[in-house]
Design goal:
Keywords: Membrane, Transmembrane, Transmembrane helix. It comes from Actinoplanes awajinensis subsp. mycoplanecinus. This is DoxX family protein. By secondary structure, this protein is mainly alpha-helical. It has six helices and no strands. It has one domain. The longest helix has 25 residues.
Length: 117
């Protein structure tokens, strides 16, 4: 597996597992406008990350997996916006993390698109 693909698989798989092992931080950033419980959305996004990681790991599905990863990174952007809003009065470190996640989505999307090629 190419280095770029392996790194993206590791990132997505780790994050996907964390959605189940430590769901509370993910629950906290689920936008309130989504129907249902935050925990359900946390689990759904964890499954999506694991499925996308598996797709990227296999050469036959890598292109589709990379495109799905780019879409997933775009889809979770509202959660990052919510985190930034919720932490706007938090400590400087927390604010830096929350606001730093916003522009970080662009290189993640670019990485996923590169893997899809």
């Amino acid at each position: 597996m190419k280095k770029d693909a392996a790194g993206l698989v590791t990132l997505l798989a780790t994050s996907g597992v964390l959605h189940f092992v430590a769901p509370k931080p993910f629950d906290a950033i689920v936008p309130r406008s989504l129907p249902g419980s935050a925990r359900t959305w946390t689990y759904v996004s964890g499954v999506a990350e694991l499925a996308v990681a598996a797709a990227i790991a296999h050469p036959r599905t890598r292109k589709a997996g990379g495109l799905a990863a780019a879409a997933l990174f775009a889809a979770v952007f509202p959660a990052n916006v919510k985190m930034a809003w919720d932490w706007r009065h938090a400590s400087p470190v927390k604010r830096a993390v929350a606001f730093g996640r916003l522009p970080a989505q662009a290189p993640l999307i670019a990485w996923a698109l590169r893997v899809s090629r």
